[in-house]
Amino acid sequence: MKNSITLSSDIFDGSEIRKMWHKNRWFFSVVDIVSALSGSDRPRKYWNDLKTQLSQEGSQIELSGKIGQLKLPAPDGKKYATDCADTETMLRIIQSIPSPKAEPFKTWLAKVGYERMQEVSDPEIVLNRSRELWQKHGRSENWIQQRMM
User: What is the mean pLDDT of the chain?
Assistant: First the structure.
């Protein structure tokens, strides 16, 4: 159930990233991720400014239907409605944050995008990558071979 891709606090230098399992996927606090990556003293203001900028660029149409508010716990123990987004949408938002802390994500996304383009042109790459991953996870050659067939 909860085996889908998630963003964890360890990739944000230990910053707390609130998240919630909702509608069969993970949703993350946009303000928490913006705070961790931008270093802004006012992450809510930064997020509002970023939303405005994305709207002016035409990206808001893409994001508006993908950002919702979920009640997440705050430091005072109460739950407040917070802008949240799923993993795919968060990665899109991260691409829009001009910060040295966001650069590793942008580099990784470019690498993954390039690898995916290679896989489309040569499906054997997917099979080889899958085999390597299953081997790293300790699967037997017999188990791997059954999956490959």
Answer: 85
Q: How far apart are CA 11 and CA 14, in angstroms?
A: 7
Distance CA 21, CA 144 (A): 31
Q: Which of 56, 4, 52, 58 is nearest to 26 (CA)?
A: 4
Residue 13 vs residue 52, higher pLDDT: 52
pLDDT at 7: 61
Domain ranges of the chain: 1-99, 102-149
Contact partners, residue 82, CB within 8 Å, separation at least 6 = 18, 29, 30, 31, 69, 70, 71, 72
Percent over 90 (pLDDT), the chain? 44
CB distance 99 to 37 below 8 Å: yes
Between the alpha carbon of residue 3 and those of residues 6, 21, 69, the distances in Å are 8, 11, 23
3-state SS assignment for residue 19: strand
Helix (H) or strand (E) holding 66: none
- Summarize pLDDT for 96-135 with one digit per residue, the tens: 898 888 888 888 889 999 999 999 999 899 889 899 999 9
